[in-house]
Amino acid sequence: MSFEYPEDLKYLDSHEYARLEGEIATIGISAYAVDQLGDIVFLELPEVGAAMEKEKSFGTIESVKAVEDLMSPVTGTVVERNEAMMDAPEKLAEDPYGKGWLLKVRVNTPDELDDALSASEYRTQVEGE
Predict the structure, then answer these.
(1) Longest distance between any two alpha carbons in the chain, whole Å
(2) Which of 40, 42, 52, 73 is the most exposed place for a label (fewest CB within 10 A)?
(3) Which residues pair with 77 in a beta bridge?
(4) What CATH class does 10-127 carry?
């Protein structure tokens, strides 16, 4: 199966992505991760105003197969969360990089994404699994 790996995103080993626009990072999970999870039934995300810390859990995603921690690619403050995905987490599979984003976070240090994986590095990692 072929997955998209948008070039404008930075990826974590744990399959989260961040799209940085100015000081706001849009965070979600990759199409590969959605596929691996299978049918997603529940999503737990922090409230607006919550602090996020890079490489720490910020919530969970639950499928019929597993419950996984969501790891933050950035340190910052939640400015928006995608309530539509909280209400209907199964829709994540339809558009993980568009309508299926999870959080928007005001980042403290934009350059902390410098050590995240590029699209080609992430593709190499997941296609090698």
Answers:
(1) 38
(2) 42
(3) 51, 106
(4) mainly beta
